Amino acid sequence: MQAITFLKEIEQFQSPVLSFNDVIRIIGKSKEYSRVYIHRLKQKNIITEIEKGKYALSEEPFEIASNLVFPSYISFMGAYYIYGFTTQIPIIAQIVCQNPKKEMNIGNIKVNFISFKNKRIFGYKRERFRDKYIFIAEPEKAIIDSLYLPKYCPISESYEALENKELDINKLLEYGLRMNSIITLKRLGYLLELHGIDIYEKVKHKLNKRYDLLNPFMKTSKKNSSKWKLNINDVFE
Fold this sequence. Notes:
CATH architecture of the largest domain: 2-Layer Sandwich
Largest sheet: 4 strands, mixed
Distance between the termini: 60 Å
Order of helices and strands: HEHHEEHEHEEEEEHHHHHEEE
Helix content: 25-40%
Strand order of the largest sheet: 4-5-7-6
């Protein structure tokens, strides 16, 4: 099969990532022939081998990264950028997945795979992104993920993301509860309160009496929220 015919055939694929078996099905040849065929495509820079047995035509890191393993989805700063919550161009693509996976480089972007327990992998969707499809957290889930693990997305970015008027507050609350993380609920409740939204009565039965840090990467301050049992060690303007 000529390369141009191959490219026309794979236009039917909505995923930017092809497996070795996908190539076999497309060209209708044996495994041995398919290996030689793939080698020729790689030599012509038509496809790139992302990892063993997986190939990509796209050079878009977010397209490729969110289609490498299933289930998985873009979250944290990458999702914030795609949704317009931040103007910071991410240099790392953070992909939530179930099983641990080594980080890799795709183009000029480093890809980190962040392992979640299966019960915390929810609230994501398949969405058109440029010419292909990606898997990405819903806006509300991206915020919840970021409050759950702020090492991957600064608390200040989540504070700004919560300014978005199109967010579904009920979904934020639902996802916050579903994460089964007390500190996530505390951070969510406090930040929403700064935006004039009070969810305390709906979550107080889930909270504890221990004081946690609003920002785990800053020193303890002298300011506490007795309501949310948080040490307020970060300031947002």
